């Protein structure tokens, strides 16, 4: 059985067991959240051994080159030596500037932007509660316009971090955040390329950042944003998005609700289904999908079948934490 050397100890991995599962089984305290290779909370550096392609999926090239990998996506087949991320990638503390309710379940959290904190709108960071539990939240703010970091946090029943944010966290408290990561963000790309943004719930946070970043960079193509919720009360930032729709001839905002009779201006039906029905052929389009994992997976497949190239589909699935 391969040995995993970490923090001066060696742990025997069982056959087929991920490095993360092995350390958890041995009661080693390490960061993790999704256990699915998405949130990047479990990133470590491999000092001896070679990370697999799967264990580096989604990491920036600079991190891959330094042998960073995701423990939940790596099964050791030989002895390895791993260490925690270096100082450059460790969490940092910052102040809570504002907490505002966007609807009954969603809180807008604005944090002071630490000096030299770089990010693209739509990337995500990990926020830690005082017990050291981390969850990922996407960035809705714009680094060139906003001197704060904006997150949209939905209250999850029993959620260790969202429950703490909604019930305990106060303005002026300090919180611990990670550097921003992820590849779901706007790049100028091909001039005139149409953009299709589909999000459910707080999947609007990255899309709101991406939409405004595209406008800030004078994106000339059409931009369609479909935001879905089960009920009208679950929609938010409606006035802000309507204002962008009115101010920019290439922006088209489509709020959708999947249950009940929607009010005027809101479409009945699931956002992903409506978006794919109404746009038809997607050859040459760039697609952003943010929200529930099942929606993202199914919309990704349908967008591909409608002609979108896989390299033009950016996805940010929200994977629920397992505890
Ligand atoms: S990426 Fe490993 S726990 Fe989320």
From TrEMBL:
Q: Domain named FAD-binding FR-type: which ranges?
A: 89-187
CDD domains linked: fer2, FNR_N-term_Iron_sulfur_binding
What residue ranges are annotated as transmembrane?
Answer: none
Q: Where is the 2Fe-2S ferredoxin-type domain?
A: 2-88
Q: By its UniProt entry, which PROSITE patterns does this protein fall under?
A: 2FE2S_FER_2, FAD_FR
**Which molecular function term from Gene Ontology is one that the record holds?**
iron-sulfur cluster binding
Known Gene3D superfamilies for this protein? 3.10.20.30, Nucleotide-binding domain of ferredoxin-NADP reductase (FNR) module, Translation factors
Pfam families assigned:
FAD_binding_6, Fer2, NAD_binding_1
Q: Which residues form a coiled coil?
A: none
Q: What is this protein called?
A: 2-polyprenylphenol hydroxylase and related flavodoxin oxidoreductases / CDP-6-deoxy-delta-3,4-glucoseen reductase-like
């Amino acid at each position: 059985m391969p040995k995993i050397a970490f923090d001066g100890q060696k742990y025997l991995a069982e056959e087929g067991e991920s490095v993360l599962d092995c350390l958890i089984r041995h009661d080693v305290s390490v960061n993790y959240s999704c256990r699915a290779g998405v949130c990047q909370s479990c990133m470590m550096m491999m000092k001896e051994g070679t990370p697999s392609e799967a264990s580096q999926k989604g990491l920036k090239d600079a991190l891959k080159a330094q042998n960073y990998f995701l423990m939940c996506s790596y099964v050791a087949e030989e002895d390895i030596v791993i260490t925690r991320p270096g100082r450059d990638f460790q969490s940092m503390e910052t102040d809570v500037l504002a907490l505002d309710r966007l609807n009954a379940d969603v809180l807008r959290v604005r944090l002071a932007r630490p000096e030299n904190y770089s990010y693209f709108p739509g990337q995500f960071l990990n926020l830690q509660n005082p017990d050291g539990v981390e969850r990922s939240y996407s960035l809705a703010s714009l680094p060139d316009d906003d001197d704060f970091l904006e997150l949209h946090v939905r209250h999850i029943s029993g959620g260790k971090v969202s429950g703490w944010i909604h019930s305990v966290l106060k303005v002026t408290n300090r919180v611990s955040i990670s550097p921003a990561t992820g590849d779901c963000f706007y790049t100028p790309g091909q001039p005139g390329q149409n953009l299709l943004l589909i999000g459910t719930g707080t999947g609007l946070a990255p899309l709101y950042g991406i939409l405004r970043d595209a406008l800030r960079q004078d994106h000339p193509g059409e931009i369609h944003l479909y935001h879905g919720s089960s009920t009208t009360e679950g929609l938010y930032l409606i006035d802000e998005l309507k204002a962008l729709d009115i101010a920019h001839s290439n922006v088209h905002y489509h709020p959708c609700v999947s249950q009940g009779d929607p009010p005027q201006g809101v479409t009945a039906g699931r956002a992903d289904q409506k978006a794919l029905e109404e746009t038809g052929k997607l050859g040459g389009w760039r697609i952003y999908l943010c929200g529930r994992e099942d929606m993202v997976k199914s919309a990704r497949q349908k967008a591909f079948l409608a002609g979108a190239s896989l390299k033009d589909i950016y996805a940010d699935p929200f994977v629920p934490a397992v505890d």
